Amino acid sequence: MALHSAVALCFSGVNSNPRISSTRFSGSTVFRSVPFRAASFSSPSSPRRCRLQGKASPGDNGPPGADESSLVVCFGEMLIDFVPTVNGLSLAEAPAFKKAPGGAPANVAVGISRLGGSSAFIGKVGEDEFGYMLADILKENNVNNEGMCFDPHARTALAFVTLRSDGEREFMFYRNPSADMLLKESELDFEIIKKAKIFHYGSISLITEPCKSAHIVAAKSAKDAGVLLSYDPNLRLPLWPSAESAREGILSIWDMADVIKISEEEISFLTKGEDPYDDTVVRKLIHPNLKLLLVTEGPDGCRYYTKDFHGRVGGLKVDAVDTTGAGDAFVAGILSQLATNFSLIQEEDRLRDALRFANACGALTVTERGAIPALPTREAVLKALLNAVP
After folding, report:
1. Where do the coiled-coil regions begin and end (predicted)?
2. How far apart are the C-alpha atoms of 322 and 365, rounded to whole Å?
């Protein structure tokens, strides 16, 4: 691999043939394995700079204080989701798919910007049409994409998502390696990281090197700069070598985070089958320096835990079409508010209001197909809350 650091070009000599890695995970989200033949793609003839796009500005419709001083930097993967146009069919039976940009950290970045906040994305995509498209989508959504890199030899990751009749999902991933897995420490934009108010990440970037080392260095750099760390494990078990390696990897950086969002299924997974509704079980996951633990419960809302109080906030009832991105929209909803005033976690009434807003963000997202296309604006969320039945 040759890296020309003067212009931050991203080169990789790794074979780009994708594969599918899969297993079955208990819970509402299921992963399937389907044999396939790798497709070939044309590639641009010349490398492209890592930071080729200009900075984006926060929207004009956001909460007070949504500017560079409330910047949320999201680190990790960005990919293309292919979502079927008809629910309740297998991938083989689906008549057509809707192409939708996705990837949990990127979803959060766009979600924050769409709510009027200030966000940036750091990650790597292929130097291919999908990669260029994703960079443009970030820019169009006012997300700072200066931290993106492009790899001319590894492709942008793809995920085919089967939607069950209830809107829940099955995934099939095309990677190994995809470009996001190949981000290196030397390609990180530390200037953006240190400007952040919150640095947000997941666990998929911990699975393989060199991205794993880049992730750890980026998080440490943010922590050393006094940036608040936000962690959503976003378990995708088929992408890990084994269940045990996933558990170990997710927990390896647990104690660094100031804010953690986790699902009921992930609690069961990390505690090896214990009851996710038992507060005693949940409290085992609270480390001494954790400021806020959030447990999402899908349509039922969420639970919250701080050092001083805990409770539950009910969800907004909607008809689910596609649950892809709902958790990311929730994270965007809460981080967009914490970034402008982190002290709200010290006042339970204000935190509950913020979580009602976040719940509504997640609820509105499931009413449309795809993740990024379905993320709501601040106006839409406030309108939904105003019209919600008490």
Report:
1. none
2. 8
SS3 assignment, position 295: strand
Domain span at residue 274? 68-77+103-154+185-388
Cα separation, 121 vs 177, whole angstroms:
20
| pLDDT tens column, 196-221 | 999 999 999 999 999 999 999 999 99
Q: Do you find a cis peptide bond into 210, omega within 30 degrees of 0?
A: yes
Higher pLDDT, 347 or 98: 347
Handedness of CA 200, 202, 206, 209 (dihedral sign): negative
How many structural domains are present in the chain?
Answer: 1
Distances (CA, A) of 23 to 107, 112, 176, 181, 330: 24, 32, 16, 20, 27
**Residue 378 pLDDT > 60:** yes
DSSP state of 167: S
Q: Is the pLDDT of residue 78 over 50?
A: yes
pLDDT at 20: 33
Residue 390 has pLDDT above 60, yes or no: no
Are the C-beta atoms of 205 and 240 separated by less than 8 Å?
Answer: no
pLDDT band per the 50, 70, 90 thresholds, residue 388: confident
Burial of 185 (0-12, 13-18, 19+ CB in 10 A): middle
Alpha-carbon distance 55 to 299, whole Å?
36
CA 327 – CA 235 distance, rounded (Å):
12
Residue 73 belongs to domain with CATH number:
3.40.1190.20
User: Does some domain include residue 231?
Assistant: yes
Give residue 21's Cα distance to chain centre. 20
The C-alpha atoms of residue 254 and residue 282 are separated, in whole angstroms, by 14
Give residue 260's pLDDT: 98
Say how many residues make up the chain: 390
The answer on pLDDT for 55 being more than 50 is no
Residue 54 included in any domain: no
pLDDT for the residue 254 = 98
